[in-house]
């Protein structure tokens, strides 16, 4: 998600889409059996850019060059907002997904990895959200159904890229 | 490592350094308490490029702009070969590190994640190798002290980026 996120000063911004997020995160999603990977930005030109990159690998020259990459990028759907992504799931599966937000900071009440892993084994759909830039606004985090516990390594340092964090969280939840 | 790796046709190549590998993998290394992150390429111009990027974030404008990024990129050492990296550890710690190679394919005999996790809790040093492009040559993999078991998700699809694979493996071994 590229909105509503904050920059290093805490100001609300719409962040730019990063090309390697598209590739790395769709490949991780495919590896761990995720149904859809939504890229959310309200900016029309950014949506067009993502569409261009994605269709190169799913329908263009890239699809033939690298069929494995195609399978991953076929999971991608471009949406303007969280609501649009949730509606897409509702239309397909007839259920309103629960919203689980990730953050590198602690927000209460927290959903542990262990509990979320158990929830995923039962019925129901979930939208797991990753914020770009310096992360989601506090208001947005507070409004989600669940706040996943932050990743911790084994040091005080906790500044992974969104690509690395998403890969590790999918592995912890679904491997 | 950018040599000796193969391209999609199995030909031995020296791959180009990817800017985001430098950032994502050093941040993951810092998060999980890794001592050093060696970027290995025999090409002088690629070594210079990595040096330029790294010093921007460790000594240049970037160091002041983003001190957390600086701490991660300070782990980086640029070397021409695996031997040079191993020598660097020997000079610092007085021990020859064991070489543990990763691959997305199965090579016997295999070291399981569980066993490697136990080995890391005992004394001794390890160099954990990640190959870029389509991975290491079979000869190189065969010559290592240990071959780590490949990552598996929960599907037949197994095509993570080297950045994602490194993040997940560090999490499994060191979290």
Mind explaining what this structure looks like?
2 copies of one chain form a homodimer. By secondary structure, the first copy, chain A, is an alpha/beta fold. Chain A has one domain (5-174): SPOUT methyltransferase, trefoil knot domain (Alpha/beta knot, 3-Layer(aba) Sandwich). The first copy, chain A, is 46% helix and 13% strand. Chain A has 8 helices and 7 strands. Chain A has helices spanning 19-31, 44-58, 61-65, 67-73, 82-93, 113-121, 138-143, 162-174; strands at 5-6, 12-13, 37-40, 76-79, 98-101, 126-129, 146-147. In chain A, the strands form 3 sheets. A 3-stranded parallel sheet of chain A has the order 6-5-7, with no helix packed on it. In chain A, strands 1-2 form a two-stranded antiparallel sheet. A two-stranded parallel sheet of chain A has the order 3-4. In chain A, a hairpin with a 5-residue loop joins strand 1 and strand 2. The radius of gyration of chain A is 16 Å and the shape is globular. The two termini of chain A are 24 Å apart. The model of chain A has no long low-confidence stretch (mean pLDDT 96). The A-B interface holds A 8, 20, 23-24, 27-28, 30-33, 66, 68-69, 71-72, 151-155, 157-161, 163-165, 167-168, 170-172, 174-175 and B 8, 20, 23-24, 27-28, 30-33, 66, 68-69, 71-72, 151-155, 157-161, 163-165, 167-168, 170-172, 174-175.
């Amino acid at each position: 998600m590229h909105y509503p996120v904050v920059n290093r000063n805490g100001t609300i911004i719409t962040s730019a889409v990063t090309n390697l997020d598209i590739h790395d995160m769709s490949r991780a999603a495919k590896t761990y059996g995720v149904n859809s990977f939504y890229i959310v930005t309200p900016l029309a030109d950014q949506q067009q850019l993502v569409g261009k990159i994605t269709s190169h690998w799913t329908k263009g020259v890239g699809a033939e060059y690298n069929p494995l990459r195609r399978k991953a990028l076929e999971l991608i759907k471009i949406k303007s907002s969280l609501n649009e992504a949730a509606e897409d799931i509702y239309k397909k599966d007839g259920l309103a997904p629960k919203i689980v937000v990730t953050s590198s900071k602690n927000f209460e009440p927290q959903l542990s990895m262990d509990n979320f892993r158990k929830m995923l084994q039962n019925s129901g759909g979930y939208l797991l959200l990753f914020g770009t830039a310096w992360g989601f606004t506090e208001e947005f985090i507070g409004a989600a159904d669940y706040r996943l516990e932050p990743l911790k390594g084994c040091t005080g340092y906790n500044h992974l890229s969104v690509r690395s964090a998403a890969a590790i969280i999918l592995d912890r939840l679904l491997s």
